[in-house]
Amino acid sequence: MVGIVADAQGNGILRVAVNARAEHGRANLALLSYLARQWRLPKSHLILRSGSKNRNKTLLIEGGDEDVLKDFVVWADRLDPLLAKQ
Question: I need a labelling partner for 11 at 20 to 30 A (CA). Which of 4, 52, 83, 84 fits?
Fold first, then answer.
């Protein structure tokens, strides 16, 4: 499950739920695998910058080109109506 929700300050944040348990990094790996599939990127291009033991995470998307950025923007725009309903 994935969607964009508003945080306390009204900023849009990406919310993703995975089925893997949060033990031994399994949930983090499942998250990175899911996002890599969604964004059509190699898993090696997604780096967990912070939040490895927290619900809130910061990711770095490495590599790619302008086409990757355009694909990401299109993907995020499809989710944007979800934020308006929050």
Answer: 52
Q: Which are the contacts of 62, defined by CB distance < 8 A and separation ≥ 6? A: 44, 45, 46, 47
Q: Which two tokens stand for residue 71?
A: 């694909």
- pLDDT (tens digit, 9 = 90+) per residue, 39-71? 888 999 999 999 999 988 999 988 877 888 788
Domain with 36 in it:
2-81
The CA-CA-CA angle for residues 46, 8, 81, to 5°, reads: 65
- CATH code for position 19: 3.30.1200.10
Closest CA to 79 of 8, 14, 30: 14
